[in-house]
Design brief:
The model is unreliable at about 1-35 and about 165-170 (pLDDT under 50). A hairpin with a 4-residue loop joins strand 23 and strand 24 (about 410). Helix content is about 20%, strand content about 25%. With about 1000 residues, it is of the alpha/beta class. It is globular and about 85 Å long. The strands form 9 sheets. Strands 1, 2, 3, 4, 5, 6, 7 and 8 form an 8-stranded antiparallel β-sheet that branches. Strands 9, 10, 11, 12, 13, 14 and 15 form a 7-stranded antiparallel β-sheet that branches. Belongs to the glycosyl hydrolase 3 family. InterPro entries: Cellulose_Degrad_GH3 (IPR051915), FA58C (IPR000421), Galactose-bd-like_sf (IPR008979), GH (IPR017853), Glyco_hydro_3_C (IPR002772), Glyco_hydro_3_C_sf (IPR036881), Glyco_hydro_3_N (IPR001764), Glyco_hydro_3_N_sf (IPR036962). It comes from Saccharothrix lopnurensis. It catalyses: Hydrolysis of terminal, non-reducing beta-D-glucosyl residues with release of beta-D-glucose.
Length: about 1000
């Protein structure tokens, strides 16, 4: 409700803690006999009214007794929850705040329109009421008819229990999270808030009539129902319209007697766009919607290519007949449906058309350039084919045709290449006009070659470089576009509005060159997924691709077009603090995982206008030593650089050298970022031609790094004390600067940022963290969970009323799941291990206590390190639990309480001292924002374990270090550059080296670890 409509908030009744404790106790008593499940928690909840923005309907079903729904001060009022499907309801619990109902009804409904009363009273007492009811329905409503106070109705919690059953919903909203526009919006109440599925966010217009909100379904939709959930400022008169072009509209519903609340409109029509046009307001304010839900079906065939085969290599013998159109190396700019044609092949009865489409189901474990994988998209008897679907922007499309004769014999044509680019030009009011279909970036009224998106990328690069001063070129190699708009790079992540403001500033520079924003969001942008070491425990590479794709989609929403990841490191040194960010101990796993993440982030195996630029790091592989020195030799360098080769095969065009130098590639030389020899190895031995971006070096190293061959000075601030751009341009040859700036500009043109540098800072954030995104993060965390030990205590077999204790420093630690700039999204429902186990226990009637509790049947002890980045939480030479954490395990065990250890394992630990004390050990790694819920589900047997250790675990510290040793090569007892060698003999290490040198498969069972690589129970 607009602020002016909100009444003066009364004083919240005191003693929240007492209420919470009382409620917990009463709920515990109830759980002891409960047989049904809690169905309402977290489900969509609406109400007749709310007192203010701080007391939304959703607060009554969020599981917290410190948040509440409160209504306006009048009778009657209602609160309604959508269970998502028909259920048999047997109990409703009401936890009233002081403003309760003396008279109310509980009702159920199949459709949210026709209601059946299953409980009624005129003698309500407030407090906590547990009501036994009998009914079925998808919707459950509390209808208050008489208040006990002069205020409204106020509930801490509204809980519905029962048994799911019945058919699923008839349909799901086709409008949710879609692109949206509106005539206006008021305050922070953006249009997209009406499409985000949340009942505590809303769109509200300016205070005038003739306001509208428009949804783009992305394809032609057949619409059958519209549901409007109004806030207090509703429309009395409005119409619903459909259109195919957002210009010509067909009315499918109209009224002048809108009643507000929840209106369910039966409509019939089709169109790509739907518009709600409000003509008459019911209040003096604007119009305001909690949710606009449109139901029906969307035809996505126009944007979905047919996938008639698996990704496949081209035939060995091609060139049997010629292709005619598109011309080889053509740039298609006039259509998204180019006509393909070819010469006839004698005897052919049909032809197959093969195109190297971007896909998410490559065999990521296979080597080879992913651009050389093709999909059959058509079969035809003609010698022409025109797609019925839009071909997406790509710079390297390759295609060929296979002729099939009457006997089934085949012959393949030549292979040709074309590109396709048809951008949607930015409409942001940034002072740049569109001239002859292109953005006039330098504002001179003419279209220069670099401004003309129809020109080849190299033509645009050459033209722009020729127009730039030496200083403008140098700025493109630096960060801090926030303060220096001519800089080529912006260090993120920034909030959407701040990023947009900086992008606007860059558009005002002389040549209008946009920057690229990149940050250390190595485990997701807003949806946080497990670190790469945890993903390596799951080995689900298509899922890793999907996670990269989620990050790409979220970043594109607000215009941040780069990421300083993924890591292409193999972690073979136990004491390397950043081993958690890498891919475990297997180079094969690392290679597959990097292929998957790069193609997910870049939207395919090539940088394109829908990509987020991946920055693969840290060259040449710091997992073989750390950030001080890399110790691989002429044999093991093959093992540690394999994931970088894989990244290049997946289309990576930005690589970050690390801080460490290499005793092999540049003996006695500097770190990789300013070592000419280490960078030359990348270009000469791996054939890399893309961008090289340094790690964060001090200003005194920037000139040396540029002269060594680095193109972009990572994080470098042109305004750093003691530094000037004049110094840089005087000390770095102009040819070296030109070489670097060409790589920078080439990437920017391929990203399409000259045509559309912006995201949507108003609506984009409402499309973050979609339910399907969180579900993928949850799946990844589940699949990573590794059960090292289980004496039969798992899955938990507890009775209603049993008590469980969750203890340990990581139990309620929101940071343990994540590092750096990946976050625990508490506002979206993520929960710590304790919170998640407590909530899952409640569904089973089990009481879960923190730290201590009465007569516990089981203790879950959460131990390990909290969040960190370059360093460890305790001394890195001590890869084992500290005494206080070990004491917790021993204490519960000494009291005869079964112990499940939930081990946050960011690096290989020595657990020999205590692992047999544990009845079960579950390794969570750093499992992302869904680590807690994933663990709770595992403990209660909702799924079976499948994760496998990505490293060996040492049997003793002596497998890693000499007694009293420190983290230096002379004190190491493991070979830092060899995998699977903890406790290995000299002969075993020689065999590992020989297999690496010969390119042979590498067994993982060397050495004498406590737990080998790949350890982990599968199933129960």
């Amino acid at each position: 409700m607009p602020a002016a409509l909100t009444r003066h908030r009364r004083r919240v009744l005191p003693l929240l803690a007492v209420v919470a404790a009382l409620v917990a106790g009463q709920f515990a008593a109830t759980r002891a006999t409960a047989q049904s499940a809690l169905l309402s928690q977290g489900r969509p909840t609406t109400a007749s009214s709310t007192e203010n923005a701080g007391t939304p309907a959703s607060a009554a079903t969020d599981g917290s007794t410190t948040t509440r729904w409160s209504s306006a001060f009048g009778d009657p009022q209602w609160l309604q929850v959508d269970l998502g499907a028909t259920a048999t309801v047997d109990r409703v619990s009401l936890v009233w705040e002081g403003a309760y109902a003396t008279a109310f009804q509980v009702q159920t409904s199949a459709d949210g329109a026709a209601w059946t009363t299953v409980h009624t009273t005129t003698g309500g007492t407030g407090g906590t009421q547990h009501l036994a009811v009998t009914g079925t329905g998808r919707y459950v409503r509390l209808l208050g008819t008489a208040r006990a106070t002069g205020y409204g109705y106020s509930l801490w919690e509204f809980q519905v229990y029962g048994t799911p059953g019945g058919p699923p919903p008839a349909s799901t909203p086709i409008s949710q999270y879609k692109q949206v526009a509106a005539s206006s919006w008021e305050g922070g109440n953006a249009p997209a808030a009406a499409l985000d599925g949340r009942t505590n966010s809303r769109w509200s217009s300016q205070f005038a009539d003739d306001q509208w909100i428009r949804v783009d379904f992305g394809g032609v939709a057949v619409v059958n129902q519209v549901v409007l959930t109004w806030e207090g400022a509703y429309a009395r008169g409005y119409r619903v319209e459909l259109s195919n072009d957002a210009t010509t509209w067909t009315q499918v519903y109209a009224t002048t007697t809108g009643a507000g609340g929840v209106e369910r409109l039966t409509v019939s029509g089709s169109g790509r766009y739907l518009r709600l046009f409000a003509t008459t307001r019911a209040t003096g304010y604007g119009v305001s919607l909690w949710e606009l839900q449109v139901f029906g079906t969307v035809d996505s065939s126009a944007t979905t290519p047919p996938l008639l085969s698996r990704p496949t290599r081209a035939p060995a013998n091609t060139g049997r007949f010629a292709l005619t159109a598109p011309a080889d190396q053509a740039m298609v700019t006039g259509t998204r449906r180019p006509a393909f044609s070819w010469a006839s092949s004698p005897g052919a009865v049909r032809y197959q058309v093969w195109l190297n489409l971007s896909r998410g189901d490559y065999d990521f474990a296979a080597s080879g350039n992913l651009l050389d994988l093709y999909t059959k998209v058509a079969e035809t008897t003609a010698t022409t084919y025109t797609p019925t679907w839009d071909v997406a922007d790509r710079w390297t499309y390759r295609w060929f045709v296979v002729a099939v004769d009457g006997a089934g014999a085949t012959s393949a044509s030549t292979i040709r290449t074309f590109s396709l680019y048809r951008p949607t030009l930015s409409t942001v009011d940034d002072g740049i006009r569109v001239v002859n279909g292109s953005r006039d970036l330098n504002r001179n009224g003419a279209v220069e070659p670099y401004e003309d998106w129809r020109q080849p990328v190299e033509t645009r690069v050459n033209d722009l470089v020729g127009r730039m001063t030496i200083e403008e070129k140098a700025y493109q190699l630096f960060y801090n576009a926030q303060a220096f708009p001519r800089s080529g790079w912006h260090f993120g992540p920034a909030e959407a509005r701040d990023l947009h403001t900086a992008l606007l500033a860059s558009s005002g520079t002389r040549l209008g060159i946009p920057f690229v924003s990149a940050g250390d969001t190595i485990a997701g942008y807003k949806t946080t997924y497990p670190l790469q070491s945890a993903l390596a425990a799951a080995k689900n590479y298509p899922l890793a691709h999907k996670l990269g794709d989620v990050q790409r989609r979220e970043q594109l929403e607000v215009g941040t077009r780069g990421v300083l990841g993924p890591l292409a490191e193999v972690g073979t040194k136990v004491l390397y603090p950043r081993i958690q960010e890498g891919n475990g101990e297997s180079a094969d796993v690392a290679s597959a995982q990097v292929r998957a993440l790069v193609t997910g982030l870049q939207g395919g195996p090539e940088l394109n206008p829908a990509s987020v630029l991946a920055t693969v790091k840290h060259w040449p592989g710091e997992g073989a030593g750390g950030e001080a020195v890399i110790v691989f030799d002429e044999v093991t360098v093959k093992y540690h650089t394999a994931p970088f080769r894989a990244a290049m095969e997946a289309g990576a065009v930005n690589i970050m050298p690390g801080y460490a130098g290499s005793t092999l590639l540049d003996p006695g030389g500097p770190g990789a970022g300013d070592s000419a020899k280490i960078l030359a190895y990348l270009r000469q031995n791996l054939g890399y031609t893309g961008l090289i971006t340094t790690d964060w070096l001090p200003s005194g190293s920037w000139i040396g790094a540029a002269n060594a061959g680095s193109d972009v000075m990572g994080g470098a601030d042109p305004g750093a004390p003691g530094f000037s751009m004049a110094q840089f341009t005087a000390a770095v040859p102009a040819a070296r600067i030109d070489d670097a700036v060409r790589r920078v500009l080439r990437i920017k043109f391929k990203l399409g940022v000259f045509e559309n540098p912006y995201g949507d800072p108003v609506n984009g954030p409402y499309r973050f963290h979609k339910p399907e995104y969180a579900a993928l993060a949850n799946q990844a965390s589940r699949e990573a969970m590794t059960v090292l030990r289980n004496n039969g205590v798992l899955p938990l077999r507890l009775n209603p009323g049993d008590n469980v204790v969750v203890a340990g420093p990581r139990a309620d630690d929101t940071a343990a799941c994540c590092i750096w700039t990946s976050y625990f999204h508490q506002e979206y429902g993520s929960r710590t291990m304790y919170q998640a186990i407590r909530d899952r226990g409640a569904q089973a009637g089990v009481n879960v206590h923190k730290d201590t509790g009465p007569s516990p049947k089981l203790a879950v002890v959460a131990v390990g390190e909290t969040s960190y980045t370059h360093a460890t939480s305790w001394v890195k030479e001590q890869p084992y639990l500290p005494p206080d954490q070990l004491a917790l395990i021993r204490d519960f065990k000494s009291r005869g309480i079964p112990v499940v250890v939930a081990l946050v394992l960011p690096r290989p630990y020595v657990i020999t001292e205590w692992h047999e004390l544990a009845d079960a050990i579950v390794v969570t790694y750093r499992g992302g924002e869904e680590m807690g819920p994933a663990l709770a589900s595992l403990l209660f047997g909702d799924y079976a374990p499948s994760g496998k250790l990505p490293w060996q675990l040492p049997r003793a510290l002596s497998d890693v270090l000499r007694p009293g040793g420190t983290d230096v090569p002379a004190d190491a007892t493991e070979a830092w550059d060899l995998p699977y060698d903890l406790g290995a003999t000299a002969a075993q290490r020689a065999e590992i080296r020989a297999r690496i040198d010969a390119g042979q498969p590498l067994p993982t069972n060397y050495g004498n670890p406590l737990y080998p690589y790949g350890a982990g129970l599968t199933g129960w």
